[in-house]
Structure formats: structure tokens, C-alpha cells
Amino acid sequence: MFQQIIVPLDGSEEACEALGPAATLARRVGAPLHIVALHPPDADPAPLEALVLEQADETGDVIRVVEVRPIEESVPRDLRRLADRWGPSLIVMASHGRGRSAALIGSVANDILNHPGQPVMLVGPGVVRSRFRTHGPAVVSVTGEDDDVLNLAAAILAETDFDPMIANVMDPRRSRELDLVRSGPHGSDVPADSVVAERAAGRLAQATGRSAIDFDVFHDPHVADALVAETTRRRASLLIMATHARSGFERLSTGSVTAEVVRTAPCPVLVTRIVDEPER
User: Which of these, 95, 34, 46, 106, lies nearest to 70 by C-alpha position?
Assistant: First the structure.
């Protein structure tokens, strides 16, 4: 699945929060842990190297490589380049999920996710890293644009013991519209609002060789709140979802469901980017 698991560190305690979940996952899937610390080209790397080596000791017996190197272009671009060079890789990093403010202060995670096909596991401030396991419930969020997220879910399910559940969060207003149409003369031509979740569950079951996968539809105008509530109720070990990875003024005006989820989720959030179709 992943040839390496990459953890970017900068010497801070916040960034170090990603090490525990990353090491647990690396140990389970048999991938080496590649800890990367990037520093400004004109900075002395010795203090950062000493600190990162000390932090790396927390990963226990997992196979690991520690690399301290100068920034060549930018942290997100350098990490993406390293991931591409090393083959299929998962980047695991801590994030506060700052939401709209990230458009102003910048977001390394968001910039990495602008690279299609590069998954990132985000460890938010609500995650107790010592409790992360590669088994137990895993919530897979689908919206209809689900190819990328289902492929990612199938890949990680093949290497772990997660018990997946498909979640589709719908705005209640949209659900009422479907009900009204179904009550009309052509109602039978309109699919039920659970069709997205049901189809996703069937496809994921087929891809993983499972007999059946549970699914549910939640009617809530606040997608992030509904997903976090479900992961909390199920005591999920992982939430898998997709993002548009918007940036700049677009992110500032619309906010980010993913950022809100990461900020409040009790478990790590595995994210992949939705590749938007070009406008015609």
C-alpha cells in the first residue's frame, strides 16, 4: 500500500503529536517511518537535528530513517517531491485544522493536498495519540464524489483490521426536496437519499472482499459536526474523507469541512483530494 510513511517535524511539540499514530500504522503495514525535518537554508541544522533525534526515540522499535535537510522550494513542495521520489507514500502530520484562518496564515497540509493522489493523515488537537489503533471502527465519509476516497479506504482496509462504516451527511433541505419529488407522479424515478451511501458501501465491500459494509445517512446542515459526532459515538479509530483542498479567498469565503473535522475529531483523519472536473 504505502512504501514509506513520512512524518514532517520542525522540533515543536505540536508537530511531534503525529509520531505516535504514524509509528503505529507503520508497524502494522510493515512500512518504514521516514522522519523529515526541514530547515531554512541559512540556519544551523545541528540544534534541530538533536531535538528531532530525541523525538524520534518515542517511536519504539519501528524501522525508521531520520533526515534533516534544508528547504529547497517550500515545505509542502519539498515534501511532495520526496513522496513522489520514494514511491507511494503516506504523509502523517499534526494539524490544528484552523479552518478559514488557514487562508490567511497558510496551511502546509492544505498545500500538500493540492497535489492530487497524495493522501495525508492529519492528527488534530483532539486526538490522544497513544490511543490510536489499526483496528476498531473506521468511518468513511462519502458525498457522491467518492471514487478517490473509496479507493483510499479499500487500500488501507487491505492492510489493517479496521471495521468500516459508510457515512453520507445530507443537508435536511435537500432531503425534503427528494421527499417532495418522490411524492409526485414521477417519484419512482428519483433515488432515495440513501442511494449514495448504499452504493458506496456495496462498492467498498466488493473491493475488499467483504460480505457487507454498514452505511447510514445523516441529515444535518453542518457536515463537520455530524461526522465528528458519529466518530465519537462509534469510538472510531479513523475517519476517512475527501477534500477539495481549496485555498486563498475561496477557502476564506467558504470555510473548510475538513479543517473543522480535524480540529474537533477524536481520531486521526485520513484525507485525499477530490479532483475537480474542469468547467465547460
Answer: 46
